[in-house]
Specification:
This protein is α+β, with helices and mostly antiparallel strands and 156 residues long. It contains 3 helices and 7 strands; from the N terminus they run E-H-H-E-E-E-H-E-E-E. Helix 1 packs across helix 2.
Amino acid sequence: MKIESIFKNLEYLEEVCELTLQEWGEYQGEEEYLQKLQRKKERILSFQNRKDYEKLLLLDNQKLIGFISIFPHDGEGYPELTPWYATMYVKREYRGNGYSKLLNDAILKEAKKRRFTKIYLKTTLENYYEKWGAIYLEKMATGEKLYYFDLEKRTF
């Protein structure tokens, strides 16, 4: 089991983008799906050298298990907050094995390595991220809850 940047493993780019669109995307028909898939791949590649972007992959024997990201921004609102903890995803067949904790710890460690003191998160999940130290800020206009991780207090 290993966690690595997508930029060192571009052979997984298409699969990651497909899973992302299937989980969070909105599209009507195959043509729009393919257009969004292409834009998503191009966007990830355009962020390759940014401090405020990363996508980490959890791999087991060259098989993609899941992924997680740092984004400069995540959706509308809060333009002053950056970076964002985003797209934690574990394939359905691997859920319930603690892989989300591995991804969580890896992205927080990466954010701290990049010298961020906080990383923000929005979610509709109840009592999920708190177990890993997420601190609640407020309810967003979208109905999601806004949290942050204080990276200055974390040790790895």
